[in-house]
From TrEMBL:
<feature type="transmembrane region" description="Helical">
    <location>
        <begin position="181"/>
        <end position="201"/>
    </location>
</feature>
<feature type="transmembrane region" description="Helical">
    <location>
        <begin position="49"/>
        <end position="72"/>
    </location>
</feature>
<feature type="transmembrane region" description="Helical">
    <location>
        <begin position="213"/>
        <end position="236"/>
    </location>
</feature>
<keyword id="KW-1133">Transmembrane helix</keyword>
<feature type="transmembrane region" description="Helical">
    <location>
        <begin position="325"/>
        <end position="345"/>
    </location>
</feature>
<feature type="transmembrane region" description="Helical">
    <location>
        <begin position="136"/>
        <end position="160"/>
    </location>
</feature>
<feature type="transmembrane region" description="Helical">
    <location>
        <begin position="256"/>
        <end position="275"/>
    </location>
</feature>
<feature type="transmembrane region" description="Helical">
    <location>
        <begin position="93"/>
        <end position="116"/>
    </location>
</feature>
<protein>
    <recommendedName>
        <fullName>Quinol:cytochrome c oxidoreductase quinone-binding subunit 2</fullName>
    </recommendedName>
</protein>
<feature type="transmembrane region" description="Helical">
    <location>
        <begin position="295"/>
        <end position="313"/>
    </location>
</feature>
<keyword id="KW-0812">Transmembrane</keyword>
<feature type="transmembrane region" description="Helical">
    <location>
        <begin position="357"/>
        <end position="376"/>
    </location>
</feature>
<feature type="transmembrane region" description="Helical">
    <location>
        <begin position="21"/>
        <end position="43"/>
    </location>
</feature>
<keyword id="KW-0472">Membrane</keyword>
Length: 400
C-alpha cells in the first residue's frame, strides 16, 4: 500500500481513554435499568420472563448474524469487505456478554415454568409431551445450551484473536489458517444454530413444529446484523474513520441487505403457505394465535415493513449507493427484526391483544445499553480495520 493511502487510513483506533468514561456510563446505566426491570418479577412474572427472552433472542441474533458475516468472508474468499470486517468481528465477540443475559431464563426453567410449557410437572404427564420427552427435558436442554454457548463464544473469540494478531505481526498465514478453519466451523455453525432455534424459540409451543424454522430465524438475524454493521460503519465514517469506505462498499452492502430481505420473505411465505395449506391444527395454531385481535396488525406490519418497503426501496442502484438512505433502511430493518421477535415470543403471554409494556421496554433498553458499552470497549481495544491483511488493498480499490 502506498504512503498516501496509508496516511488516509492513519486513524486506525478509537480514542480509548476518551471513550472509557462513556463506556462505563453506558454499562452502569444498562445495569441500573435491568435491575429496575426486576420489579416485573413482582408485578407479572410471566410477562417479565417473556420480555427477557424476547430481548435475549434479539441481541443473541445480532452476534450470531455478525459471526456469520465473518465466516462468509473466509468461506467465499472475499476481498471487498476486508476494510469493513473488523466491526462484525467486534460485535460477534460480544457472545460471552450476551450469554450472561440468558441466566434469568434458566431461573424460570428451574422454578417458575412460565416460558416453556414443557418444563411444568403437570404437562410432563401428557401424551403429547411424552412423545418428545427424550429431547425436551430440562437436563438435556441445559446441556445443549452449554454446547451452543461454548461453541459460539469460543469460535467468535478465536477468529477475532487471530485477525488482531495479524495486525501486530503482519503474517499472512493467519488469514490462510482462518480460511481453512472457516469451512468446518460453518458446518457446525449451521448445525448448532438449527437446534438453538428449536430449543429457545420453537419450543415455546412444544406441540408446534416447522421444518424451515431455523432458516427463517437465521435469515432475520443475518439481515439485522448486516443492518447493524452498516450503521456502525456509517457512524465511524461520519466521525472521520474508515475514510476509504466509498460508494462501492455501500452498493455491495446494500445488495446483501436486499438479498437477505428477499430470502426472509421467501422463507416466511413458504412456512406460512405450507402450514396453512396443510391445515393441521397443531401447526396452524401458531398463525391463528398471531392473526387475531391486535396481533393481526403486527402480522400485516411484518409483511409490509419487513419485506415490501425494504425490497422496493433497495431495488434501485441509486438508493444502495446513497449512505443516508442506506442508513435509514438499515435502521428500519433493525427495528423490524425487534418487531418480528416480539411477534414470535410475546403472543405466548399476551395472547388476546397486542401491547408493549414497561417491562418489555426496560429490559430491551437495559440490554441494549450494556451491548453498546461492550461493543465500544471491544472496538477501542483494536484497530478499526485489519491493517496487515493481505487483501486490504483489494478492498480499498473494490469496484462492482
Amino acid at each position: 500500500m502506498n504512503n498516501s493511502r496509508l496516511h488516509a487510513l492513519n486513524q486506525t483506533m478509537l480514542p480509548r481513554e476518551k471513550l472509557k468514561r462513556f463506556v462505563w456510563t453506558l454499562g452502569i446505566s444498562g445495569i441500573v435499568v435491568l435491575l429496575a426491570s426486576l420489579l416485573g418479577l413482582i408485578v407479572n412474572r410471566s410477562e417479565f420472563f417473556h420480555a427477557w427472552l424476547f430481548s435475549f433472542l434479539f441481541y443473541f441474533g445480532l452476534c450470531v448474524g455478525s459471526f456469520f458475516w465473518v465466516l462468509l468472508h473466509y468461506v467465499t474468499n472475499a476481498g471487498w469487505d476486508t476494510l469493513l470486517r473488523r466491526q462484525v468481528e467486534n460485535v460477534a465477540s460480544l457472545f460471552p456478554l450476551v450469554i450472561l443475559f440468558s441466566l434469568p431464563i434458566f431461573l424460570d426453567i428451574f422454578s417458575s415454568h412460565t416460558l416453556y410449557e414443557w418444563t411444568r410437572p403437570e404437562i410432563q404427564k401428557l401424551k403429547d409431551y411424552m412423545e418428545k420427552s427424550a429431547y425436551l427435558n430440562v437436563p438435556f436442554f441445559c446441556l445443549r445450551a452449554c454446547v451452543y454457548f461454548c461453541f459460539f463464544g469460543f469460535v467468535s473469540w478465536f477468529f477475532r484473536r487471530l485477525s488482531c494478531v495479524q495486525d501486530e505481526d503482519g503474517n499472512p498465514y493467519h488469514s490462510l489458517r482462518l480460511k481453512r478453519l472457516a469451512y468446518p466451523v460453518a458446518v457446525f455453525f449451521g448445525f448448532l444454530f438449527t437446534f438453538f432455534a428449536i430449543d429457545w424459540a420453537m419450543s415455546l409451543d412444544f406441540r408446534w413444529s416447522s421444518t424451515v424454522w431455523a432458516f427463517y430465524l437465521f435469515s432475520g438475524a443475518a439481515g439485522a446484523s448486516l443492518s447493524l454493521w452498516i450503521l456502525i460503519l456509517l457512524s465511524l465514517r461520519k466521525r472521520g474513520y474508515l475514510l476509504e469506505m466509498n460508494e462501492e462498499h455501500y452498493h455491495l452492502l446494500g445488495k446483501l441487505l436486499f438479498a437477505f430481505t428477499a430470502l426472509w420473505a421467501y422463507l416466511a411465505f413458504s412456512q406460512y403457505m405450507l402450514i396453512w395449506y396443510g391445515n393441521i391444527p397443531e401447526e396452524t395454531y401458531f398463525f391463528i394465535r398471531r392473526n387475531n385481535d391486535g396481533w393481526y396488525y403486527v402480522s400485516i406490519l411484518l409483511v409490509l415493513g419487513r419485506f415490501a418497503l425494504p425490497f422496493l426501496f433497495l431495488l434501485p442502484q441509486s438508493t444502495k449507493r446513497n449512505e443516508k438512505f442506506l442508513g435509514l433502511i438499515a435502521c428500519w430493518v433493525l427495528f423490524m427484526q425487534a418487531v418480528e421477535l416480539y411477534w414470535i415470543v410475546m403472543p405466548m403471554q399476551l395472547s388476546q391483544n397486542f401491547a408493549v409494556g414497561w417491562m418489555e421496554l426496560s429490559v430491551f433498553i437495559g440490554m441494549g445499553l450494556i451491548f453498546l458499552s461492550g461493543y465500544l470497549k471491544k472496538a477501542a481495544e483494536v484497530c478499526l480495520y485489519p491493517i496487515h491483511d493481505p487483501r486490504l488493498q483489494e478492498s480499498i480499490e473494490v469496484y462492482n
